[in-house]
Amino acid sequence: YSLHWLIGVLALLYLAIAAVFVVKLLDVKSPLFAGLIAGLMVTFPGLASNFAYLFTMDGYMMGLLFAVLAVYMTAKVKLGFIFGACFLALSMGTYQAYLPVAMLLSLYMVLMIFAEKTKFIDKLKKALNYLYMGVIGVALYYSILKLLLAITGKELDTYQGMNSAVEKVSLMDSIKA
Predict the structure, then answer these.
(1) Bigger pLDDT: 173 vs 147
(2) pTM to 2 decimals?
(3) What is the C-alpha to C-alpha distance for residues 11 and 82, in angstroms, rounded to an integer?
(4) 75: CB partners within 8 A, 6+ apart
């Protein structure tokens, strides 16, 4: 069964929670600007186009929420890059197109770190957490993908050459390079 109203409500709930975490991540204090951020997230053309695929929209919005949570955890929790990496892997497992969302939010946070008036080494340590989150998260996603493909005996679909991209990458090749 496809319950469009339930899928729509869940999608909007995930999107609203993602907007809340973006507002908290950016330390927005003004209710007006917080509302504008939520409004921009809902009406952004790349995101709003997902409404055309209502039957999968809840998954897409969950992927967005996980991408935002990856950066939020890295920024706000001690050793949060570990939790962030897990959320990034979940986001990529849901919908890989939200990796750039996590990357751009991470870049913004790194810029804010370097705007602080602290020692350079402290800034660098905080900024590297975002790199750790990204590398561990992508590696975790890739490992889980390869494991599940091996367990099920399936191959990736040929959609936009993704199967050849994943097949050509191996851990041993990366270590040799």
Answers:
(1) 147
(2) 0.85
(3) 26
(4) 25, 109
